[in-house]
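PT: before anyone asks, these are the final sequences, not the draft ones from last week. 250 residues across everything. Please model them as a single complex and drop the result in this thread when it's through.
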Amino acid sequence: MRYLTDRKRAEGKGASGTGTEHHWYMQVSAVALAFLVPTFLFITGRAIGSSHEEVLATFAHPFVAILTALTLYAGMMHFNKGAQMMIEDYARGSTRKILIMLVIGISYATIATGLFALAKIAL
Amino acid sequence: MADVNRGDRPLSPHLQVYRPQLTAITSILTRITGNALIVAVLLVVWWLLAAATSAEYYATANAVLTSWIGDIVLSLSVLGVWYHYLAGLRHLYFDAGHGLDIPTAEKLGWGMIIGSVVLTIITLLIV
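LR: through. Structure below.
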């Protein structure tokens, strides 16, 4: 008698080992970014090149601060997974592992830095 | 069982023997633009950190981003954002099972290329 169910034996046997999780994450973050990016581009594009006081006033606004935080987080996590997929296509072995760790590190460091800056400006 | 002809087998047709096709070019450009955008993100986050730190630091970062090389990098990044944006929308459309026949896929490809240039010009005009 088999104690494992058919489903249990099939799980994790696909090429990725994680099923459609990655693909689903990319779809969700892509839709989120499709809503966030145009407004973010407009606001940040206008802010770059303006005076220091104007930049502080812009990013102190709750809507702008929250929009920028969301865009940064969703964007960097989308980059994290997308860049990982690219590395997995082109690099092997230890190089692959080191590059993926590097990408994850850059992603989180960028998110942390951006959120710190936003918090300092907005709060 | 053992492959005695290892290394001397006929190869299957590879990328290099094909005429470049729009669908393949637009696909690889999606990956290139998406990953290249990290440069712009790092620049803008650095700029934001500088703004949060001090007026002097902000002046330095702002000078870098608005220099001619900063302008080139950011303008190209805007093109990259819009291209990747439209490519993402096309990807979602493909994923839903639509537009996968060759004439439609090629039309969507040209739509992405032309659309991203138009959106970039509009963006650069209004910001």
